[in-house]
Amino acid sequence: MSIQTFGQWLYTTPVAATIRETVWIIPTVQAVHILSIAVLVGSALVSNLRLAGVFAADEASPAVIRRYLPRMWSALGILLLTGLVLIVAEPGRTLNNAVFWTKMALVLIAFVLTLVFQKPLLQSPPGGNGSDRSAMTKPVAWLSLALWTVVIFCGRFIAYT
């Protein structure tokens, strides 16, 4: 079964029809999706700017990561749920869209970077500065910020492609 065939089938399901026809569902889900994006990107911004040495330099990196990484995971979970609802409602708009798949790949890459470079800092003692002194930390922090920025733009452009 092709993605296009699957999308056409999904569009005709009663669940998809209910989501599309109930006037408040899509705007509510979109609002929650956008608020979750703000939480995720805001947390990534603070965490990565700390790792880049630009923000909260007086605070240990592990402390900043401990504070914001759980928020990123929670926001990602909400984004996956709300995104799934939006896909079910209009599968043709997303599943056949190269920008959507680019966005999904970039989200995956950004979270792998987060796991590889931020999660180890959680193992550091609360007062310690952790392993954020590696030569790769700053470039990876900036790369992560760039990835999240492109993810936001891709999300916006899904509607126009």
Automatic annotation (TrEMBL):
The chain crosses the membrane at residues 24-47, 68-88, 100-118, 139-159. This is DUF6644 domain-containing protein. It comes from Nitrospirillum amazonense. Keywords: Membrane, Transmembrane, Transmembrane helix. Residues 29-160 form the DUF6644 domain. InterPro entries: DUF6644.
